[in-house]
Amino acid sequence: MKKILVVEDEEILRSLLQKRLSEEGYEVDVARDGLEGMEKIREKRPDVILLDIIMPNMDGFEMMEEMKKESISDIPIIVVSNSGQPVEIDRAQKLGARDWLVKTEFDPQEVVDKVAIQVGEHQNK
Which end of the chain is more exposed for a tag (fewer CB within 10 A), N or C? Predict the structure, then answer.
């Protein structure tokens, strides 16, 4: 079973992502901020990370920088962003993000599809 880590400080969105991905058969773990996210990454080595950028304690950019420092930047990251600003997306890609979602255009099926692509389970339907 593929493991997904959702690092998101907004409880409603975190719960929604966890529920939707669990329904698709993934083992889903959650973290409320980057510090908790880093602990879970070290502990569980997820297959994909859904990562918010703006969070307390350690934001998404700091988390990706920390992953690079610790040589654990091989885990696919899908950024979940409030803005989707090109400068933000560009920085995230430079830090290793493979894909992104904008919260205002949030579609649970799109999340499932993007995760499936990253874990190599995407079939053309």
Answer: C
